[in-house]
Design goal:
The complex is a heterodimer of chains A (586) and B (437). Chain A has 586 residues and is an alpha/beta fold. Chain A is built from 22 helices and 10 strands. Among the domains of chain A are: 81 residues, no CATH class; 112 residues, no CATH class. Chain A is 45% helix and 9% strand. Chain A is globular. Chain B is an alpha/beta fold and 437 residues long. Chain B folds into 3 domains: 222 residues, Rossmann fold; 69 residues, Arc Repressor Mutant, subunit A, CATH 1.10.10.520; 85 residues, Ubiquitin-like 2 activating enzyme e1b. Chain:  B, domain 3 (Structural Genomics Hypothetical 15.5 Kd Protein In mrcA-pckA Intergenic Region, Chain A), CATH 3.10.290. Helices cover 35% and strands 16% of the residues of chain B. Chain B contains 14 helices and 13 strands. The chains are: A alpha/beta (586), B alpha/beta (437). Chains A and B meet through helix 1, helix 2, helix 3, helix 4 and helix 16 of A and helix 1, helix 3, helix 9, helix 10 and helix 11 of B. Bound molecules: zinc ion. The site of zinc ion (ZN) has 8 residues of chain B, from loops.
């Protein structure tokens, strides 16, 4: 079958096979085009992307690489701001400029070639200078969903970061009086590149994530079985079952039963010592009717779930005490209303999160599994109903106080389903110059290579800010100035250069040939390497570095916009000479 | 380990290394004009290295899909000018969310050809030679002409083939025969890139056990105790399709075939009260679809090309030898050296020691081989010296060796005996030394 040439006009295709089945038809052209990504962020993530409008400051190779990775998955709209004209050097490193573009406005040329990647994306060029917008039309920036600044001079960058940070009153400020005038400025991603080195960070006040796609599974509540599960586990007569049925009892049922029996023998306590845990597992093994009953093997392998306490995870508990939850107002973000409802919910017995309806696959026959699955679904529905009642109560109270609105049902569903893996990120104002001594002290110990990369890029910006020009490639004096700047930053954190290790190789008397221990690279060596690399090609937009940053930053944009998966919390530093990356919270 | 592709001095002037327009290589030249702090001494800054990169270096890109499109664009901008690309696929609508050299009008056209034309149009001075076909169509002489090979493939089998081919190509007498292989792969927000110096560093086969095992459902679950929608879909495709359609081969690219499976799987799911069978899930299960996005492909392709550039120019040390990235929770990446395995069937040279149960039949041994993560072989044939133990083909030989399947291993093979294992899909043989326990 040949695909339609014009995918926009193609609609739902008819399927003769499905015609009389009452089943939905084939996916439409949009679903087919986006199939590989819908499997990651579903229709909800896609519609968030399609409602977003991204502003990119500067039509650099990195900027167009980022945009390419957002236009392809179908971002709603994007604007490139650039008042410069295309020169040969731009053309050579930027895949989205053509020879014809020479001498023309960079933003207008770049949007032509980016726009053609996806007809459903709106592409705009802004040819005013950024500084004149900051002077005359600062609210211009507020109409975008997210802003990306790549290699913007420090002086201008500081105006942008301040404008977006200071005008944004996040709910975290806890200032109830500010509610009326509350504005949330778009998140800003600051990207810096220099030859093989690059870094980026996200400036956002707060970012709550419900659909984290966490790998950690919700509790099956084996240690705190809900009534229908407990009743079911004891309704089965294991001994009288025939061999086939016995070999198909789901491990969850086995564990609930054995644990309860164990507790009956042990004053209500679950196994806690190593010996007790071994004994518990032996009990399960002894229940086998045949040696090859895999469901009992599974129960042994999963036995730790019997002594894993189902409690409210400390990360979730922390959300209850977050200032935004504590100072809840009618206008607070729905996330905090949901968290507050969860806090009340968990304060009531059995003091757990609402049950998740998802049951993993396990050795079982169809009937037993589907029955167990139904018990989980029914209890999950009951838990959700109790949660929703609490939430609606809070909302009614808020409505009485002049607030309003109720959290959409779909969001409640997602929240309850992911209650064990919620995440809240509180960002900081972007300061490439890292004046936070405490944070820098910690970071230089945790991730010296990443700190070195980050500081040398900051040194480059500082150099440009001070001298009004970039360092000359390979120039010794300019390199020394950047090195001194980095050293001053590190010294402020109490750091002193490590003493040169003594050359012990010659003094070693023993004749045996020893493997030389790989030498740990010191922070100072990292700094020398990183500043040296920056000095080699201070302003080089290396196409591979641009492409790699284009991918990484686009991933972050997608995560922030869809509110799915978890964006970075801090600064990510990339060193493509050593093929490493690191994230530091500075 | 220090292996560098020698950059010979410029031949006669800098004809094709000169840019097509002023400043074409303005940024790349900043890197090539002087060494950095970690640059190897072999680096010949300036014209020599530029002339090698732009006049002599010949690079092969395998795959013109999600990674391939990105790789081709990066290489062209970095200054590689003689690029070859192989891909056997044509363009599908579901490629357009990430394969950015293709447009809706190109659907149905060969990927390699369309990609090559696009690159040559966008980056003047670059020659891209496409081949629309299989990597297996090409012989050793073909692969011998390249300095570096980059793989952006989604097929494990094709990777194993090119890996084994490049390992076999190495002639210790001829340094030119060592072709660095750079391999990239992605899945959703995750990916990895690696550099392989065949016979010197860990090869693709050495790390086979790092792959996620493809989810295979036991046939008895599918037939008797389905619990998940996937089980119903497998039932439709594995058991019902051959029963109903006899000789007609299932084409997972044909939407009507997927619709049929969807219909049959839905009916079974309803019967067993299993929820969740959808058209998309059906397609995903039978085609083993891996989620793919442009941004992850961009990261991995950039990493691969950055390594290719460093190998070709020695401008900075290249990756030794594995980089993995996880972008689901922040940005986490890990750079490490994957160890070469001395008993790797491709590059190890040593025989693999295998402990065989006393009661094992030849059939059990074959089953063990096909299930082993380190080996991952389909339909293996076994022989002891020149004596066939069991052959999958040709039919006469299969028939004459079939009775051996039932026999105990130790009846046919002595303790310490060396068994040769071959499979038609793989260009290498594996030698096992058996010990009975
Ligand atoms: Zn190997």
């Amino acid at each position: 079958m040949k695909e339609s040439q014009d995918i926009e006009s193609a609609t739902v295709q008819l399927s003769p096979v499905l015609e009389t089945t009452g089943l939905p038809g084939l996916p439409d052209s949009k679903e087919r085009r986006y199939d590989r990504q819908l499997r990651l962020w579903a229709a909800s993530g896609q519609s968030a992307l399609e409602s977003a409008h991204i502003l990119v400051l500067g039509a650099s190779p990195t900027s167009t690489s980022i945009l390419k990775n957002l236009v392809l998955p179908g971002i709603g709209a994007f604007t490139i701001l650039d008042d410069g004209v295309v020169e040969g050097k731009d053309l050579g490193a930027n895949f989205f400029l053509e020879t014809d573009s020479l001498g023309k406005n960079k933003a207008e040329e770049a949007i032509k070639h980016l726009g053609e990647l996806n007809d459903s994306v709106a592409a705009h060029a802004e040819t005013r200078a950024l500084e004149s917008i900051l002077d005359d039309d600062p609210t211009y920036l507020h109409k975008f969903s997210l802003i990306i600044a790549e290699n913007i001079p420090q002086r201008i960058l500081e105006r942008v970061t301040a404008l977006l940070w200071d005008s944004s009153t996040g709910a975290g400020d806890g200032d109830a009086d500010a509610d009326a005038s509350q504005t949330v400025a778009p998140p800003l991603i600051v990207v810096r590149t220099s030859g093989f080195l690059a870094d980026f960070g996200i400036q956002l006040k707060e970012h709550s994530i419900i659909t984290t796609h966490s790998d950690s599974a919700a509790s099956l509540r084996i240690d705190k079985p809900f009534p229908s599960l407990l009743a079911h586990a004891f309704s089965l007569n294991f001994d009288k079952m025939d061999v086939t049925d016995h070999g198909h009892i789901p491990f969850v049922v086995i564990l609930v039963r054995v644990l309860q029996e164990w507790k009956n023998d042990h004053a209500g306590k679950a196994p806690s010592t190593y010996a007790e845990k071994q004994e518990f597992k032996q009990r399960i093994v002894k229940m086998k009717k045949k040696d090859d009953e895999e469901n009992f093997d599974e129960a042994v392998a999963q036995a730790y779930k019997a002594w894993t306490n189902t409690i409210v995870p400390s990360e979730i508990e922390a959300l209850f005490n977050d200032p935004s939850t504590k100072n809840l107002t009618a206008n607070s973000d729905p996330f905090y209303h949901l968290v507050h409802a969860l806090q009340i919910y968990t304060s009531q017995p059995p003091h757990t999160l609402p049950l998740s309806a998802t049951l993993p696959d396990m050795k079982s026959d169809t009937k037993s599994y589907i029955h167990l699955q139904r018990l989980y679904k029914e209890q999950a529905a009951e838990d959700k109903a109790r949660f929703t009642d609490i939430l609606r109560g809070i909302e009614a109270g808020a409505a009485g106080a002049g607030g309003g609105g109720s959290v959409a049902l779909g969001m409640v569903d997602d929240f309850v389903k992911n209650a064990h893996a919620l995440r809240l990120i509180r960002g900081k104002k972007w300061t490439g110059l890292t004046d936070d001594v405490e944070a820098l002290t910690l970071a230089r110990e945790m991730a010296p290579a990443a700190v070195a990369t980050h500081l040398s890029l900051s040194a480059l910006y500082a150099f440009e800010g001070k001298n009004g020009r970039l360092p000359k490639p390979g120039d010794g004096a300019d390199r020394e100035e950047m090195t001194a700047w980095v050293k001053a930053r590190l010294t402020a954190t109490g750091w002193a250069p490590e003493p040169e290790p003594e050359d012990s190789a010659m003094t070693g008397a023993d004749e045996e040939e020893e493997e030389p221990m790989p030498k740990e690279i010191t922070l100072w060596e990292h700094v020398t390497n990183a500043v040296g690399e920056v000095s080699r090609a201070p302003a080089a937009e290396l196409p591979t570095t641009a492409a790699l940053m284009g991918g990484m930053v686009a991933q972050e944009v997608i995560k922030v916009i869809t509110k799915q998966y978890i964006p970075i919390d801090g600064v990510c530093a990339v060193d493509l000479a050593s093929s490493t990356t690191g994230t530091v919270k500075v | 380990m220090s292996v560098a592709v020698e950059a010979p001095p410029a031949a006669n002037g800098a004809s094709s290394s000169s840019p097509q327009y002023p400043d074409q290589y303005y940024y790349v030249d900043q890197i090539l004009d002087r060494p950095g702090p970690r640059t190897d001494e072999a680096f010949s800054a300036g014209d020599p290295v530029k002339s090698f990169l732009r006049e002599q270096c010949k690079i092969l890109v395998i795959g013109a899909g999600g990674l391939g499109c990105e790789i081709l664009a990066n290489l062209a901008l970095m200054g590689f000018k003689d690029i070859h690309v192989i891909d056997m696929d044509t363009i599908d609508i579901s490629n357009l969310n990430r394969q950015f050299l293709f447009r809706p009008k190109d659907v149905g056209q060969p990927k390699a050809t369309v990609a090559a034309e696009f690159i040559m149009k966008r980056v003047p001075g670059v020659k891209v030679t496409p081949y629309y076909g299989k990597i297996q169509d090409k012989d050793d002489d073909y692969y011998m002409q390249f300095n570096i090979v980059i793989c952006g493939l989604d097929s494990v089998e094709a990777r194993r083939w090119i890996n084994a081919t490049l390992v076999n190509l190495v002639d210790p007498e001829n340094p030119e025969s060592l072709k660095p292989l750079i391999d990239g792969g992605t899945e959703g927000f995750k990916g990895q890139s690696r550099v392989i110096f065949p016979t010197i560093s860990s090869c693709y086969e050495c790390s086979l056990d790092m792959l996620n095992k493809p989810t295979a459902f036991p046939i008895c679950t599918i037939a008797n105790t389905p619990r998940l929608p996937e089980h119903c879909i497998e039932w439709a495709s594995v058991l019902e399709w051959p029963k109903v359609h006899a000789d007609k081969k299932m084409d997972t690219d044909d939407p009507e075939h997927i619709s049929w499976l969807y219909k049959v799987a839905s009916k079974r799911a309803k019967e067993f009260k299993i929820e969740g069978v959808t058209w998309q899930l059906t397609q995903g299960v039978v085609k083993n679809i891996i989620p793919a996005i442009a941004s992850t492909n961009a990261i991995i392709a950039a990493s691969c090309c950055n390594e290719a550039f460093k190998i070709a120019t020695t401008a900075a040390p290249f990756l030794n030898n594995y980089w993995m990235l996880i972008g689901t929770d922040g940005v986490y990446s890990y750079t490490f050296e994957h160890e070469k395995k001395s008993d790797c069937p491709v590059c190890g040279g040593e025989t693999m020691d295998v402990e065989v149960g006393k009661g094992w039949t030849i059939e059990r041994l074959i089953e063990w081989l096909t299930e082993n993560q380190k080996i991952q072989i389909k339909k293996p044939s076994l022989s002891l010296g020149t004596k066939p133990i069991y052959f999958q083909a040709p039919p006469q030989l299969e028939e004459s060796t079939r009775p051996n399947l039932e026999k105990k291993v130790h009846e046919l093979i002595p303790e310490g005996g060396e068994v040769t294992v071959t499979a038609s899909t793989l260009p290498f043989t594996l030698t096992l030394r058996l010990a009975f326990v």
